[in-house]
Amino acid sequence: MTYAPFKDWENDGRKGAPRGGLTSNLKNQIIMAVIKLDKVSKIYDAGKIPVQALDQVNLEIERGEFTAIVGPSGSGKTTLLNIIGGLDRPSSGDIEVGGVDVDQLSDNKLIDFRKDHIGFVFQSYNLIPVLTALENVEFVMLLQKRSRKERLERARELLQAVGLEDKMDKRPSELSGGQQQRVAVARALAPKPSFILADEPTANLDSTSAGNLLDIMAKLNAQEGITFVFSTHDPRVIERARRVVTLVDGAIASDVRKSEPVQ
Amino acid sequence: MLPILAWRNIWRNPTRSLVVILAISMGIWAALFMSGFATGMIRDYIDSNISNVVGHIQIHHPDYAREKDVRLQVDPLPGLEAFLASQAPVRAYSARTLATGMVSTANGSRGILIQGVRPDQEAVVSNLRQNIREGTYFEEGRKNQILLGQPLAEKLHVKLRSKVVLTFQDLEGNITNGAFRIVGLFNSGNTPFDESRVLVQASDLGGLLHPADQTGTPDPVHEIVLLCRDPDSLVAVQKSLQTAFPRLLIENYRELAPELELYESQMKSVSLIYLTIIMLALIFGIINTMMMAVLERFRELGMLMAIGMNKGRIFSMIVMETVLLSLAGAPLGLLLGGLTIHYFNVNGLDLSAFAKSLNQYGMGTDIRFDADPGVYWQTAMMLVVTAFLASLYPAWKAIRLKPVEAIRKL
Ligand SMILES: Nc1ncnc2c1ncn2[C@@H]1O[C@H](COP(=O)(O)OP(=O)(O)O)[C@@H](O)[C@H]1O
Ligand SMILES: [Mg+2]
């Protein structure tokens, strides 16, 4: 059997549909939107004045897209990504991820759903400091109860794909910020998620490292068809995206698809 | 990988973890010290009672204990002695002639138990001979020698070579008396014991108990004390004796001195209370440390939940961390405790500064620490339970955090 790190888990001993009580089969929905937001609003009313962080957002993202969510600070980028990723719940509106109405899932089911279907890359603190790069990438697969052999094989291949084959045994503190973010991308890919959400992944990086990270993400998208949704307000990052969704005050101000990928 | 992760997490803050580990070691050491001390003390007390007072098994006429009548003798004596001599598990026995009466001196008198012993037998069964502090044990060929406890001699204001008079009833119920000379003063370290009896030779006491016209008849025996080679064979010996001599009262030391068992169980519960107090102190230290560990990893825990580590796993990770942290302190504590117990087992802890009050309660001053092997397990298990309980609150705190709030702060 040839090993295919960028294919969905299949014929791997796990029968049928993805776990977590999900009934639909993601493979049948390749053409359909993998993320679907319908009039999603989010109001924070913990403070004195309620804040409308998202205002009637309609958004569909398809498999294989390379989408940037842009907008000034406070425009609702993080809120949007958190809601897509099932970390936060909308105040109103519907959200479907991979055909699943994530709003119906309990907190703990949602954690399992994230584990199997969504890869996260945060701005920082992505990695478990006491584990090596390799172990960090293995970690989610461990939660998925993959065999040790499978975990190691895939973790090595993914670290190779992000150009860190010589850093596998380093702990995060021994890696540069850019290298840490690349490990985070490998880690996010490890469970073979439906897509990867990255909230300002380059915010703490110098421009060379940022460019590097974007190169890797773009390559994974172009060659392996990995779906990326990332937020940023860095113009150099924005120009790499193939689709740019601009948020202003929690509402979508523009949504532009570029015909050709910018390399 | 979860145990590895938990273990490495412990060492993220080595100083803090080491402080906890050291505190746990000290706690375990202290618990074992207390337990070793208490066990040593109670064993010493029991041993001293066995060797000074009760022996392993005693044989009496069934009514003797109640009536204390000199006519209630151990019967049939020759058959019993032959049987005892034939029993391999019986190490030694001593036949005693007993009389309750009075010891009088020029300075006053006191009620006491007069124990008439066969010197050779008694020297093997009890510590009497070793406990002679002044003078000598019974010497052969001399009549009317008496041994007194030092505390009693003090009360009676008599010394070595003083003369005392014993008064008691003979076998026919007549008051009789005899003059004895003190040849030795003993001190068993058990003041109540030393004050309450005097020892004479059975032949002298027997002679006085028999009316004048019956000299030559064997001395009456009221009590036979025996020691077994192995304390564990005690019950078996008791059973076979009872079967062979159904009409005699045969009791082991626990039946004879039920306070020993009570005392033992009290000592045990006292050391359990100490253990509990120590564990309670540890529990708060552990909770405090783990709360710090959880709170300072707030963001990381949020990230772990975001990427798919569910609450059950987060919870078990914190529990595992706590238990591992606590168990890390166990080996050192157990080792130190074991070494301490061993040291004081060999060398004894000298409490002679408190001799007076300890002896008052019949306790020795040279405490040989002791421990059942089970104590180490019990302490370790108690620590695991403590650690587990201590982990629940921090683990519960950890799973209550909302990933989105933690992530916001990234
Ligand atoms: N937990 C919260 N409570 C109250 N207001 C919040 C909270 N999180 C975000 N906001 C507000 O929601 C708006 C959108 O924030 P955010 O999604 O973080 O924007 P961005 O990521 O584009 O900077 C901002 O006005 C912010 O202050
Ligand atoms: Mg943001």
Characterization of the model:
With 263 residues, chain A is an alpha/beta fold. A 6-stranded mixed sheet of chain A has the order 6-7-8-3-9-10, with helices on both faces. In chain A, strands 2-1-4-5 form a 4-stranded antiparallel sheet, covered by helices on one side. In chain A, α6 links the parallel β7 and β8. About 7% of the residues of chain A have low confidence. Chain B is α+β, with helices and mostly antiparallel strands. In chain B, the strands form 2 sheets. In chain B, strands 2-3-8-5-7-6 form a 6-stranded mixed barrel, surrounded by 4 helices. Chain B has a two-stranded antiparallel ribbon with strand order 11-12. In chain B, α2 packs antiparallel against α11. The longest helix of chain B has 41 residues. The radius of gyration of chain B is 31 Å and the shape is elongated. The two termini of chain B are 25 Å apart. The relative contact order of chain B is 0.18. The chains are: A alpha/beta (263), B alpha+beta (410). Chains A and B meet through α2 and α3 of A and α1, α12, α13 and α16 of B. The complex binds adenosine-5'-diphosphate and magnesium ion. Adenosine-5'-diphosphate binds next to β2 and α1 of chain A.
